[in-house]
Amino acid sequence: MTSKMKKLAIVSSHPIQYNAPLFRQLSGGQEVGVRVFYTWEQSQAGRKFDPDFGKDIEWDIPLLEGYEYQFVKNISTDPGTHHFKGLVNPTLNQEIVAWGPDAVLVFGWSFDSHLKCLRYFHGRAPVFFRGDSTLLDEQAGIKRQLRRWFLKWVYRHVDVALYVGEHNKEYFLKHGLRERQLVKAPHAVDNERFAGGKTNEDYAVRAAQWRREMGVGENELVVLFAGKMEPKKDPLFLLELAARVPDPRLRIILVGNGVLEGELKQAAAGDARILFLDFQNQGMMPVVYRLAEIFILPSRGPGETWGLAVNEAMACGRAVGMSSKAGGAIDLVEEGVNGIIFKPGDVEKCGVWIDTLLEDRRKLVEMQQRSGERIGQFSYEHIVDAIRQLMTTV
């Protein structure tokens, strides 16, 4: 690290597959020195139980390579990210101070230590914030007003928020941040890895072989759902879609595990067009998306703040359908160009779309090409540029 390099301390709960490539890229230049302070100390073991998938998960891509990091002692009696007191790190602020950063970037405020970090460094160093909350699940009433007051107090401790998309920007503005305090840093995944640019491996060839093994014909149209099989994601929508489109050329593949898995398999038992695959790790996902021509995220919420699986599918060149309850829909999907946006549960709109693409494969190919082009606007490079530009003002 050179003497002229600005230093950025990043506070994050635990190693996340979507953040690790960003941290590596941010650490790769000469402009900014980075150290990540992980507050869920117990997560350094790697493998952990995911209650939504219902199984132990250990990602098969490197999450701790290419950047500086340290795990901070977490004294919570119930450690984890499932509640406010799951991350309690008495030495966090002192460890950050000892490193001597020029600015601090905090991912999320809804943990004891993260909120205390925002409060401690406010006025001592520039405080940047990263979160992806939206107003999509808000309901009128006294609870909303009380939450509004509380969040305005929280964000008074933030100098600049890095917003991920338009719904997230609206959320920050509603809670007291000014336009001049907001910097666009769009939600992203490792586009190059999913597109195949980082390897010489032909994902399409592997996917075609896999399709043959599953008995999927070359001319059949495959619609994919991949994620946790939970009510928030509404995977039952795919079964309703199959009933709406009885065409034998349609196949539906559901990938993942979760509380709805048994119900889904039982309900689909009479339709041979519907196939199931267990949870697939990150290394396989570029192949998984290529099993299908179309990816659909039918989320009902609450809490679907973005939908990063759609980023991944678009980077693989898939046409996409997104529920309007997914925070990233208005950013990722250009209606009728690379896919559609539909209201939660609107099987009819999706069915008409699928009917059209079954008959017009040229339109399908155009949508897939547009997805691949559009996802370039959502890249780690955009986030890195935004952060480096911010650091020049420190």
Query: Helical amount among residues, as a percent range?
Result: 25-40%
Cα end-to-end separation: 17 Å
CATH architecture of the largest domain: 3-Layer(aba) Sandwich
* Biggest sheet: strand arrangement: 5-2-1-6-7-8-9
Strand content: 15-25%
Please characterize this protein's 3D structure:
By secondary structure, the protein is of the alpha/beta class. The chain has 2 domains: 197 residues, Glycogen Phosphorylase B (Rossmann fold, 3-Layer(aba) Sandwich); 182 residues, 3-Layer(aba) Sandwich (Rossmann fold), CATH 3.40.50.2000. The protein contains 15 helices and 15 strands. The strands form 3 sheets. A 7-stranded parallel sheet has the order 5-2-1-6-7-8-9, with helices on both faces. Helix 1 crosses helix 15 and helix 8 packs across helix 13. The protein is globular, with a radius of gyration of 22 Å. The two termini are 17 Å apart. The mean pLDDT is 95.
